[in-house]
Amino acid sequence: MENEIIATIVNGNFENESSKQLLYFNLYEANYRRVKSYIKSKVVHEESVNEILNDTFIVAFGKLNLFNPEKGKFPYWLYGIAKHKILDYYAAQKKYRMFVDIDEMEDIMDYMYEEVMHLTFQGLTQYLNEKEALILKYRVDGLNYEEIAQLVQTKENACRTMVSRLYTRLRNNPALIYCA
Hints:
Elements (H helix, E strand, L loop, with lengths): L1 H10 L5 H24 L5 H17 L11 H23 L5 H24 L4 H11 L4 H8 L3 H17 L8
Helix pairs in contact: 1-2, 2-3, 2-4, 3-4, 5-6, 6-7, 6-8, 7-8
Protein backbone atom coordinates (compact mmCIF):
# COMPACT_ATOMS: atom_id res chain seq x y z
CA MET A 1 0.00 0.00 0.00
CA GLU A 2 2.81 2.43 0.91
CA ASN A 3 4.59 1.68 -2.35
CA GLU A 4 1.41 2.55 -4.26
CA ILE A 5 1.05 5.85 -2.39
CA ILE A 6 4.71 6.71 -3.04
CA ALA A 7 4.37 5.83 -6.74
CA THR A 8 1.28 8.03 -7.01
CA ILE A 9 3.06 10.97 -5.37
CA VAL A 10 6.26 10.55 -7.42
CA ASN A 11 4.37 10.18 -10.72
CA GLY A 12 2.07 13.09 -9.89
CA ASN A 13 -1.05 10.96 -10.43
CA PHE A 14 -3.42 12.89 -8.19
CA GLU A 15 -6.49 14.86 -9.00
CA ASN A 16 -5.85 18.04 -7.01
CA GLU A 17 -3.76 19.55 -4.24
CA SER A 18 -6.00 18.23 -1.45
CA SER A 19 -5.68 14.65 -2.70
CA LYS A 20 -1.88 15.13 -2.81
CA GLN A 21 -1.93 16.37 0.81
CA LEU A 22 -4.10 13.39 1.78
CA LEU A 23 -1.56 10.98 0.26
CA TYR A 24 1.28 12.60 2.22
CA PHE A 25 -0.85 12.51 5.36
CA ASN A 26 -1.62 8.79 4.90
CA LEU A 27 2.07 8.05 4.42
CA TYR A 28 2.93 10.07 7.51
CA GLU A 29 0.13 8.54 9.59
CA ALA A 30 1.22 5.00 8.69
CA ASN A 31 4.82 5.55 9.81
CA TYR A 32 5.23 8.35 12.30
CA ARG A 33 4.64 6.24 15.46
CA ARG A 34 7.31 3.66 14.70
CA VAL A 35 9.80 6.29 13.52
CA LYS A 36 9.12 8.39 16.63
CA SER A 37 9.60 5.30 18.80
CA TYR A 38 12.93 4.63 17.08
CA ILE A 39 14.08 8.22 17.63
CA LYS A 40 12.92 8.14 21.28
CA SER A 41 15.09 5.09 21.87
CA LYS A 42 18.12 7.19 20.88
CA VAL A 43 17.23 10.72 22.08
CA VAL A 44 15.88 11.62 25.52
CA HIS A 45 14.74 15.22 25.11
CA GLU A 46 11.12 15.24 23.87
CA GLU A 47 11.38 18.49 21.91
CA SER A 48 14.46 17.17 20.13
CA VAL A 49 12.64 13.93 19.33
CA ASN A 50 9.81 15.87 17.66
CA GLU A 51 12.25 18.10 15.80
CA ILE A 52 14.19 15.09 14.47
CA LEU A 53 10.91 13.37 13.54
CA ASN A 54 9.78 16.41 11.56
CA ASP A 55 13.16 16.76 9.87
CA THR A 56 13.08 13.07 8.95
CA PHE A 57 9.74 13.36 7.19
CA ILE A 58 10.69 16.63 5.48
CA VAL A 59 13.77 14.95 4.00
CA ALA A 60 11.85 11.79 3.13
CA PHE A 61 9.01 13.63 1.41
CA GLY A 62 11.49 15.84 -0.41
CA LYS A 63 13.36 12.82 -1.74
CA LEU A 64 10.51 10.35 -2.34
CA ASN A 65 11.68 9.97 -5.92
CA LEU A 66 14.90 8.37 -4.57
CA PHE A 67 13.06 5.65 -2.64
CA ASN A 68 13.49 2.27 -4.30
CA PRO A 69 11.07 -0.42 -3.06
CA GLU A 70 13.36 -3.12 -4.47
CA LYS A 71 16.07 -2.18 -1.96
CA GLY A 72 13.83 -2.33 1.10
CA LYS A 73 10.62 -1.28 2.76
CA PHE A 74 9.70 2.36 3.24
CA PRO A 75 9.86 2.30 7.08
CA TYR A 76 13.47 1.06 6.91
CA TRP A 77 14.32 3.87 4.54
CA LEU A 78 12.79 6.29 7.06
CA TYR A 79 14.87 4.71 9.87
CA GLY A 80 17.99 5.37 7.81
CA ILE A 81 17.07 9.02 7.38
CA ALA A 82 16.20 9.28 11.09
CA LYS A 83 19.54 7.69 12.02
CA HIS A 84 21.43 10.36 10.08
CA LYS A 85 19.30 13.11 11.63
CA ILE A 86 20.07 11.70 15.11
CA LEU A 87 23.79 11.68 14.29
CA ASP A 88 23.51 15.29 13.11
CA TYR A 89 21.73 16.17 16.36
CA TYR A 90 24.47 14.66 18.53
CA ALA A 91 27.21 16.24 16.40
CA ALA A 92 25.59 19.64 16.97
CA GLN A 93 25.25 18.95 20.70
CA LYS A 94 28.91 18.04 20.95
CA LYS A 95 29.91 21.49 19.70
CA TYR A 96 28.13 23.19 22.59
CA ARG A 97 28.70 20.75 25.41
CA MET A 98 31.86 20.50 27.43
CA PHE A 99 32.63 17.14 28.94
CA VAL A 100 35.07 17.04 31.85
CA ASP A 101 36.37 13.86 33.32
CA ILE A 102 35.37 13.57 37.01
CA ASP A 103 38.94 12.70 38.01
CA GLU A 104 40.18 15.74 36.14
CA MET A 105 37.59 17.92 37.90
CA GLU A 106 38.69 16.53 41.29
CA ASP A 107 42.32 17.35 40.43
CA ILE A 108 41.31 20.90 39.49
CA MET A 109 39.36 21.31 42.73
CA ASP A 110 42.26 19.91 44.78
CA TYR A 111 44.65 22.32 43.09
CA MET A 112 42.33 25.27 43.73
CA TYR A 113 41.91 24.27 47.39
CA GLU A 114 45.68 23.95 47.84
CA GLU A 115 46.24 27.32 46.17
CA VAL A 116 43.66 29.07 48.39
CA MET A 117 45.08 27.40 51.49
CA HIS A 118 48.61 28.41 50.51
CA LEU A 119 47.58 32.04 49.99
CA THR A 120 45.61 32.06 53.26
CA PHE A 121 48.53 30.50 55.11
CA GLN A 122 50.90 33.08 53.62
CA GLY A 123 48.61 35.90 54.68
CA LEU A 124 48.14 34.55 58.17
CA THR A 125 51.90 34.24 58.75
CA GLN A 126 52.06 38.03 58.55
CA TYR A 127 49.79 38.27 61.61
CA LEU A 128 50.58 35.02 63.43
CA ASN A 129 53.86 33.50 64.35
CA GLU A 130 54.92 30.55 62.23
CA LYS A 131 54.02 27.95 64.86
CA GLU A 132 50.50 29.37 65.27
CA ALA A 133 49.96 29.44 61.51
CA LEU A 134 51.17 25.85 61.15
CA ILE A 135 48.88 24.66 63.96
CA LEU A 136 45.93 26.43 62.37
CA LYS A 137 46.73 24.98 58.94
CA TYR A 138 47.00 21.45 60.30
CA ARG A 139 43.72 21.86 62.19
CA VAL A 140 41.97 23.08 59.04
CA ASP A 141 43.45 20.09 57.18
CA GLY A 142 41.59 17.85 59.63
CA LEU A 143 44.42 16.59 61.79
CA ASN A 144 43.64 15.85 65.43
CA TYR A 145 45.43 17.59 68.30
CA GLU A 146 47.77 14.68 68.99
CA GLU A 147 48.98 14.63 65.37
CA ILE A 148 49.42 18.41 65.32
CA ALA A 149 51.36 18.34 68.59
CA GLN A 150 53.77 15.79 67.12
CA LEU A 151 54.26 17.82 63.91
CA VAL A 152 55.01 21.11 65.68
CA GLN A 153 56.83 19.37 68.56
CA THR A 154 54.71 20.61 71.42
CA LYS A 155 52.40 19.08 74.00
CA GLU A 156 48.83 18.17 73.04
CA ASN A 157 47.25 20.40 75.71
CA ALA A 158 49.38 23.37 74.65
CA CYS A 159 48.26 22.73 71.09
CA ARG A 160 44.59 22.70 72.16
CA THR A 161 45.03 25.98 74.02
CA MET A 162 46.80 27.58 71.08
CA VAL A 163 44.06 26.51 68.61
CA SER A 164 41.36 27.80 70.95
CA ARG A 165 43.12 31.17 71.28
CA LEU A 166 43.67 31.35 67.51
CA TYR A 167 39.98 30.71 66.81
CA THR A 168 39.07 33.43 69.33
CA ARG A 169 41.44 35.89 67.67
CA LEU A 170 40.01 35.07 64.25
CA ARG A 171 36.44 35.45 65.48
CA ASN A 172 37.25 38.80 67.08
CA ASN A 173 39.15 40.03 64.02
CA PRO A 174 37.61 38.51 60.86
CA ALA A 175 39.85 40.69 58.69
CA LEU A 176 42.67 38.25 59.45
CA ILE A 177 40.85 35.58 57.44
CA TYR A 178 40.91 37.79 54.33
CA CYS A 179 44.46 39.01 54.74
CA ALA A 180 45.70 36.96 51.79
